[in-house]
Design goal:
- This protein has helices spanning about 5-10, 10-25, 45, 50-60, 90-95, 100-115, 120-135; strands at about 30-40, 75-80, 85-90, 150-155.
- The chain is α/β, with parallel strands linked by helices.
- A 4-stranded mixed sheet has the order 3-2-1-4, sandwiched between helices.
- It is globular, with a radius of gyration of 15 Å.
């Protein structure tokens, strides 16, 4: 997949809409949402057993989603070539939200992606994640914005 492929489905206006949805969402809960897009994995990584899930765990680390005061980060990782969504929640949230809830959100997003409805899928996924976070991780009196809201494009092969 060419390095610019993400631009076809995530033009600037869509990235702006996602950023706005994350910013607005984080006023209603104590979590921090980070959305990352990676076009594809290098073939050599796949041959050695790299999966979307393993890569999402790596991205969680190198994007520092874990670096929040209350361990309240959530990474929504899209491996575009596979239209695979992985949701990784930091331990503060993972202790409160059942993993099957994240799986249901990911599945709904993937269904929209298969229909080519990327913007709708991401925005609806953020809405569902926000509902989960608001129910299980309400905002405190001090609710800082600790992670960037802008979607990040992960360069293929970045470690």
């Amino acid at each position: 997949m060419p390095p610019w492929a993400w631009r076809r489905v995530f033009p600037r206006a869509t990235l702006d809409a996602i950023e706005g949805a994350i910013r607005e969402s984080e006023t209603r809960h104590g979590g921090e949402i980070r959305f990352a897009i990676e076009n594809s994995l290098p073939a050599s990584w796949v041959w050695r057993g790299m999966t979307g899930r393993k890569r999402a765990l790596e991205a969680f680390s190198f994007l520092r989603v874990w670096d929040t005061e209350h361990n309240s980060g959530v990474l929504v990782y899209l491996l575009l070539a596979d239209r695979d969504i992985e949701i990784i929640a930091d331990r503060g949230i993972a202790a409160r939200v059942d993993p099957s809830a994240w799986g249901a959100v990911a599945q709904a997003m993937e269904m929209d992606f298969r229909r080519g409805e990327f913007e709708h899928g991401v925005l609806e996924g953020i809405r569902q994640i926000s509902t989960l976070l608001a129910a299980h991780f309400p905002p405190g009196k001090h609710n800082p914005d600790e992670l960037p809201d802008r979607p990040v494009i992960v360069p293929s092969g970045y470690k």
